[in-house]
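We treat protein structure as text, and this decision shapes the records that our systems exchange. The tokens are whole numbers drawn from a learned vocabulary of local backbone shapes. Below, we set out a record of this kind in full and without editing:
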Amino acid sequence: MPFGEMSITLDDVACLLHLPIRGIFWSPQDVTEELAVELAVDYLGVSQGQAQSHVRSCRGSYYKLEWLYDLFVHHRAASSWAYATRAYLLMLLPSTDILEMRPCTVANNSVDILLSYKCWIHEYFPTVGKRGENWKPAENCGLPRAMRWSYRQGVLKVDDLRPILDELTPTDVIWRPFEDHRAWRVFDEICLYRGCLKWGETVVPYLLDRCLRQFGYRQYVPSPPLDCMMATDIDVDWISYHQSIIAVIGSSTVATTPSEVEDDYLEWYYRVSHPRLLPPHRDASREVPVPVYDVGPSDPDWARVSTLIHRYLRQVNAEDEDPQFSDLFEALHISRSH
């Protein structure tokens, strides 16, 4: 983002999907042809004969992408959404591991995994895209947070969204969106673990020291990224997560404003990263200037008011001395003081 890094975290997984984030890492077992047939019958809604014929044609415990697509179209037309969702999710995988269907059974609990990324955007970026709510947070009865949002087809294309994202400021972000959801998902300190996560042979870095503002801490210049290929024992690191938490938050302090950063953070970030989606004009310097953000109001409602006023004034190229906009500039100063 123009103002620093953000990431999908374990806390997002816990609150949006109500999936467990503790326990040992899962290593999938080898799948026999018999089990591949059984899983297709149970989770993809095909007959025993269809499943046996297809698996036999694959000469192993595999499913072809074309077959999964045909199943997806069929089940979608029949409004068999659980089967359609599993077929669709398997098509998204670079390698169609059959055992992926077992985690996908969460769709039976009415959690729309396909929209989980969109829901993450709705939670953190209220000014981006269209947000439709299915409920009021105080009346959600403990359901997964992802069910709060209803899908609304937007009209903006990728080229339209890029400048919108480049113009976002820290006050456009709800940095800690789940505080009113803690009655159903208490914050788990394991979310502050820094290390590698593992699923079977897949290992990915989980670098919490790069998005501390999402946890109420002041963002500092993080440590160099982990090389997960050099990790010795990921399972042990995961079990002893307290050690990494001490290292992560011991170098920071609790933020006094939601988007607070150390003085040298943005300079470092603009030096090592690519903070803008749109490249500068050909006749402009390639160097992108580091923005200077106002501290802004601490109250999220006042922050929203401040953002809207500031955005309008910027769009019309208003100046402080212009009497036509004096009232708006006064309103902007008032909103920033709260």
Summary: Residues 94-102, 104-114 have pLDDT under 50 and may be disordered. Residues 300-315 form the longest helix (16 residues). The radius of gyration is 24 Å. The chain has twelve helices and four strands.
